[in-house]
Design a protein that fits this description.
By secondary structure, the protein is mostly helical. Helices cover 80% and strands 0% of the residues. It is built from 5 helices and no strands. The longest helix has 40 residues, at 34-73. The model has no long low-confidence stretch (mean pLDDT 92).
């Protein structure tokens, strides 16, 4: 719950910034002069991109949460509490790699099971590969949506 509250607070802060930025763009557009109007159009693109990024990030987060709740209800959430950790709290690299290999073997055995893709995404995350974790989680979301349909 704490992470969600931080995300909400940061979203509100970004939204305020985007509104202020849009206000500057509108002020530039109202001058009627060529250069400021062109600059205003360019500046107006930034808040639009920001809103798009906020919406897609929240939508993705909600989809991941839905999968996590469903997997938790089934008793299948990945548990890494028994893996050895470094003083920083991160999972030991060798243990993370071994756990990752197990999750990858699960996906190879049943590539159409979204639950296995979810656990593989978690394995990528604890191994520190966030880019692949996000891509793998997107695959889990796609498979779960097909499973529900």
């Amino acid at each position: 719950m704490r992470a969600r509250n931080v995300a909400i607070a940061l979203t509100v802060a970004v939204a305020v910034y985007l509104v202020l930025l849009a206000g500057r763009a509108v002020a530039l557009l109202r001058t009627g002069e060529t250069v400021p109007v062109l600059l205003g159009v360019a500046v107006l693109v930034l808040p639009l991109l920001g809103v798009w990024m906020l919406v897609t990030t929240w939508r993705s987060g909600n989809q991941v949460q839905r999968l996590a709740r469903r997997l938790d209800a089934e008793g299948g959430l990945p548990d890494v509490s028994d893996l050895p950790r470094r003083p920083s709290g991160r999972v030991d690299r060798q243990a993370a790699d071994a756990w990752f290999d197990e999750r990858r073997a699960e996906v190879e055995a049943e590539p159409e099971d979204w639950r296995r893709w979810y656990r593989l995404a978690h394995a990528y995350d604890i191994a520190g590969d966030r880019r692949r974790a996000r891509a793998t989680m997107r695959k889990a979301i796609e498979l779960e949506a097909a499973d529900r349909a």
